[in-house]
Specification:
Distance between the termini: 29 Å
Strand content: 35-45%
Number of strands: 40
Helix content: under 10%
Structural class: mainly beta
Length: about 600
Amino acid sequence: MLTVAVAAALAVQGCTSSSPQSTPASPASTNIPVKFSELPVPPTVPADGICASPTGCVSANWGGLGSPGFYWDPHYVLLGITYAGAPAAPSPASVYNGPQVIVVRTDGTTFADGNAWKCITCGVAFGADIDPTQFPYPPAHELPDGRHVLVGNGILECGQNGADYAVTDPRCTPANTRIAPIYWGTKPLRGLTGREWRLSPDGVHLAWDTLDLATFSEVPFAGRLTYDKANKRYDLVNVSALYNPSDTRYAPYVVGPGNKLTFNSAGMVGELRGWNNDGTATLGIQAYESDSVDAWETSLATGKSRALTDHAEYTDPMSMSPDGRWLLAEEVIGSGRLDFISGMEGIPPITDQLSTIGYVSGIRNNGNRRFFLPWLVGTDGKVHQQINKGADAAWNTAADPAWLADSTAVVYTENLACGANPTPHKCPDSTEPGGRNSRTMIARFPTLPASKAVAPPVTSDRTWGLPATQGQQLPPPTPLPAGTYTVDGKVSGSASVVITHNAADTAIASIDVTFRDVVDKPGYVLNGTEKVSIVGTTPLNEVVTWNANITLSGQHTGSKSTSPGGFTLGPDLLLQNKFLPTGTMTTVLDGRTYTQPASGA
C-alpha cells in the first residue's frame, strides 16, 4: 500500500520551476548514442476550431497527445489521442472526435490513405460500460495474439466472426470492430473500481490499483482476464491484492533480535507502474532512500523486490524493454525540483515509514508543469543516462513510455511545461505544427541489438498477496511497533531510531533518527539527526513536519537542514498539489546549495 498525494494521483500537474543551480550526479552513467525524431500524428486543429482534414485533427491543447502503447510488431506503436474540430454527422469525418486510440507506423511508411496513422476506435460503437475518456491513458496495449488490443477499460477486436484481423489490416473497419468491457465483480473497471491498469506481456493478466479516498492510499491488484461469452465482457478472476500487511516477510523494515531494524526488499509495489518483460513481476514505486522514490521490480510468486533505479528522487511512469535489459524511467532527478529534499544520497528510508511518500510525490509537480525527464536505466544497474540531456526544458515528459517490440527504441509523449497558454503566460509559445502543446518522440538507440519480442509463458495466478474481491475491505497497514531501535549501516556505522505511535496506537506519530557514522553507500558518511512527525486525525487535516540536521562527509560533503521549528507540509499538498510550506529545508552538496521552490510554485 502506498500513501499518495490525491491530486497527483488523479490529475496531471504544473507551471513554475524551483531552480537551484544544478542537480547532484546520478550514481551510474554512460553515453549510449540516441537519435530523436517525432512520431507522425494527425494535423493540429486550426485556431478557428474547424478541422478540414478528412481523417481528423488532433487537439492543440496540453495533453492532446496521450500515452503511447506497446505493439508486438516494431513497425507500429499505439497512441492515445484527442481529436478536435470534427464536422457534425452525417459527415464521415464526424467520427474523428474526442479521445481515441490510433496505431502509428514507426518506419516512415504509410497506410493506403497516405497517412502514417490509423484510428482504431473512431466510429466504433460500444456500450455505456466503456469509458472513452480512458483511451488516451492508461496506455493501449496489443495482446500477443495480434488480434486484440487493450483500449481504455475494454478489449478491442475486429472481424465478422470474432478477432479475424489485426488492427493494421485494411479489412478492420469501424463496422466490424467491437470493444468488450473489463469487469471486476459486478462493476466495470474504472473510477474507484480500478485505475492505472497495465496489461501483462502474457496477455492474460492485468494489474491495476484502487484509490481509497478516506485514507488517501492505494492498493495494487492483479488478476486473470477471462471472456464471458454470455455477457460479452471480460471478467477479472483469481484476483490478488499485492499487499500483505500482516506478514512481516513483506514489510519494508523488520524487527530482529536486540530491537534491530533491518531494511527488507520485499513487497515494494506501492503504486503499480506496470510489468517486467516476462510478466513474472510487477513494477512499482517505493522509497529506497530517504525522501526519494524509486522504481522496484517485485516477483509475483515470492514478493521479493529489487530496486531498478537508485536515487531517482521521484519516478513514476516507466516501461521495461521486451528483452528485459532496459527501463525507460521518467525521473525528477536532473530537473532541480526535489534536490532540496531528495538530493542527499545514502540516507536510509527510515523516516519514510511514517509515510512521507505522498508528500514528496505532491511536490514533484506544479500545475501543468511536470518535472519528469526520460532516463535510460540498465536493469543490471550499470547504466543511468538522461537521454535528452540539454533538450528544451520547456517540454516535460508525460506518462507512459512504450518500447518498440525489437527493444531498440522507446516512444514517449511530451507536453509544453506551462500547458496551453496559461494566464499569465510564462513559457514560450509552442513551435510545434499548429502551435500544438503536445508531441510524441521516438528515441532510437542505434547501438542496441535488435531482438524479436516473444510472448512469455502465461504466469500463475498465485501471488504473494491476499485473495481479493471487488469492494472487499482489506486489513489496514501494520505500523512498526513503537519503541527504540538500532539500524546498522549497510557498510558501517549505526543509527538509533525512536518510533512513537498516536494516542490510539493505530499509526506512527513520529520517527526520530540519530546517525552515527552511518554508511549505506560507500563514500557517503552520515552524522546528525532527522525527525518526521505528523499531527492530525485524518489526511484532510494532517500536517507533517521534518526536522533535519544531517552532515555528509567522505567522498562528498554537505548537509541537509531545516529552519527552526522545522519544515511543514499540510493537506493542500495532498489534495491539490499546492506547495504551501511553513519553514524551510535546504540541502548543500559539495558546496552547492539547493533550496525549495517558492510557496505556491
